[in-house]
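Reader question, answered in our methods column.
A reader sent in the components of a multi-part assembly and asked whether the whole thing could be modeled at once rather than chain by chain. We filled in our standard form and ran it. Here is what they sent:
COMPLEX SIZE: four components
ENTRIES:
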Amino acid sequence: MKAPVILINLKAYRESIGHDAQRIAVAAEEVGKDAGVTMCIAPMFMDIHPMRHHYDLEVFSQHVDPVDPGAYTGRISARALKIAGATGSLVNHSEYRQTIADIEHCVNALKTEKLTSVVCSNNVATSAALAVLGPDYIAIEPPELIGGSVSVSQANPAIITDSVEAVRKVRDDVRLLTGAGINSGQCVRTALDLGTDGVLLASNVVKAKDPEAALRNLVSLL
Amino acid sequence: MKAPVILINLKAYRESIGHDAQRIAVAAEEVGKDAGVTMCIAPMFMDIHPMRHHYDLEVFSQHVDPVDPGAYTGRISARALKIAGATGSLVNHSEYRQTIADIEHCVNALKTEKLTSVVCSNNVATSAALAVLGPDYIAIEPPELIGGSVSVSQANPAIITDSVEAVRKVRDDVRLLTGAGINSGQCVRTALDLGTDGVLLASNVVKAKDPEAALRNLVSLL
Amino acid sequence: MKAPVILINLKAYRESIGHDAQRIAVAAEEVGKDAGVTMCIAPMFMDIHPMRHHYDLEVFSQHVDPVDPGAYTGRISARALKIAGATGSLVNHSEYRQTIADIEHCVNALKTEKLTSVVCSNNVATSAALAVLGPDYIAIEPPELIGGSVSVSQANPAIITDSVEAVRKVRDDVRLLTGAGINSGQCVRTALDLGTDGVLLASNVVKAKDPEAALRNLVSLL
Amino acid sequence: MKAPVILINLKAYRESIGHDAQRIAVAAEEVGKDAGVTMCIAPMFMDIHPMRHHYDLEVFSQHVDPVDPGAYTGRISARALKIAGATGSLVNHSEYRQTIADIEHCVNALKTEKLTSVVCSNNVATSAALAVLGPDYIAIEPPELIGGSVSVSQANPAIITDSVEAVRKVRDDVRLLTGAGINSGQCVRTALDLGTDGVLLASNVVKAKDPEAALRNLVSLL
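And here is the structure of the entire assembly that came back:
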């Protein structure tokens, strides 16, 4: 995916279910085109197929299970995501932590299916450790800032620059996204200036009264 | 749902993804109509909406998370299942065990959404305990028989009759399904004769070379 | 165990490690004798053996794993607890929730070893469901009150009386303990008056400047 | 710890409880002294204190929880392990997998307490990823060989040499142990020759009729 990247995690919010989710997708598609940004959306599993079908967006799963197709009830393999139309998946989101053995399985399974992997990390050390596994992206989200109104680039830009440096030291083909608290064009601008490819965010778009306006604000300094 | 009930859990099998899942749904719809059976299918999350849209079947989720809509990445609320078109959900499948606090939350959330709850249990004692929570159905699946070719009604009919009796003692409005190893018309017949409303099964239909023939065999003694 | 029962959960508090834990045990033993109360203490695993050896107290494990002796790293079987000198174990504490299949395994394993089982529940419905499994005690702890300064008997006595009634309906040999926020002699008095055998508490003794005074206060209205 | 290192994981085996565990400790202490080997034992939590008190052995916990002292029922902090007398802890054993955020927390907490961390990995990629977190040791245990009679050095020596190389590339201060299926002096010899500092093993000592003879065999080619 070409930078800059904006990845909207719809989570399980009330505003992310069914038609409401479509409202966000419509806005994302339009703003993405206007701004020349790679716009990605991560809906609930049930919306992966319709979102891919109806919009010109990268469609991410919010989660993938560390299983090959088989006797697993309620679990979703990378293969199943591919067939449903996903173009990638989040892995190890702070709201769905996974073991390192499972993360490695997922990164490889996504690679096999030519799906983009975005592995979430919580600090500099885990960012570097996860980069060793060779995902496409590491998304750094300091847990204390998730869902808040202060972005990581305001609160602690060093965690971003240190992560970029630490990741570069172990792998130079792994890109980074900045997460947690992203809420303005300045946040996105800073995320890029600090050496990451874009942002991962959720509530500040999903719960916005006007998602399109929120998105236009995010791309305003690109 | 009117007895007899046949609930096909598609799990995460290779044969349950995308078009292959449709093949099973087509067969289920047809056999269900011919035999006057309440046919239910539990596909992966991504197939809940299309299956409900295209087939005259009860469509179950394989799992529901114990969350109300909110900031939960990769989790599925009962509300989201309802909007996607599900008519019910499995809860606490042996391949996705849940805590008792979470099961209680899920049973109530499904009730609020008027979705049918099928809570899986592993023996007589847990069947009775779970019945206290007031789900629509308890599905008894002795773990040692799951995925095998010997059905519970052949191997250990006492576990069914004892469960029926134990459940009746705590609640008389909770119905039961017989699970694990169901593979023939005789299994289904016995499940009904022992006092349960039907069967929960997976591999013996999903992995059958001819799912329709497998389903016709299952309803052959009704 | 003879009522009234006071069960002190030491958790993993700084004040519960090593010599500090002994300080609480000394106080518990003395106050228990003076007041004619069955005093129980639930230390960390490492202190089970020395506490049983040095004090005249019922010694509970804070947790037991649903395993028979075998190849399980970091897990503790009921058998191992017995050999270490425990007289019982908490099961399914709200800070260590377990699946219903695992709770049933633990209750049975504790029974086999003649250890007292105290299964924690979070509301009326789960109290009754867990009672079906036949533990020695159900300890009701509404999660929203745990660790606070308002006790369940003040905030919501109905949850206790309703639980007692609901449990009685399914089993008349399962006793109850009142938990969450217990902080005074009045709380303990009310717990007994509402039909439970005693209380389960933690911070209000463990983090007290003077644990003995805190304990003397708890038994002051017996 | 000085190489060669032999770390015996007692797991939750019947042969590892109470007096039986002491029998293995006695043998380990004696063989360790005779052979000039750093002998380590990882008993159940309850035996950490007595083992450290009675034997001249490095005493490891089988697990540590990612918590600082606080309101955590049934959990064990690094601080509590230190006070109990442990000299180190296993982290992320294949029978007790942990998330990467939790592993990082544990490695740091053990470091703060000056306890030796041995983080288990399952393949080359996870070995390198975990090394980034800076534990004292990485113990490589291919899951498919654990508990078997074929050692990793016989079945797949490349996984060891590749892990040594991959770990060296990210950190040169992290040492390695070879695990899974270790059963003879040749296995230990090979583990050292391939560049690791020693071995992590369990059943082949714990379940041996004569643990001392098993241990003497292990050190026979040093």
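What stands out: Strands of chain B lie at 5-9, 38-42, 58-61, 88-91, 116-121, 137-140, 175-179, 198-201. DSSP finds ten helices and eight strands in chain B.
Send us your own complexes using the same form.
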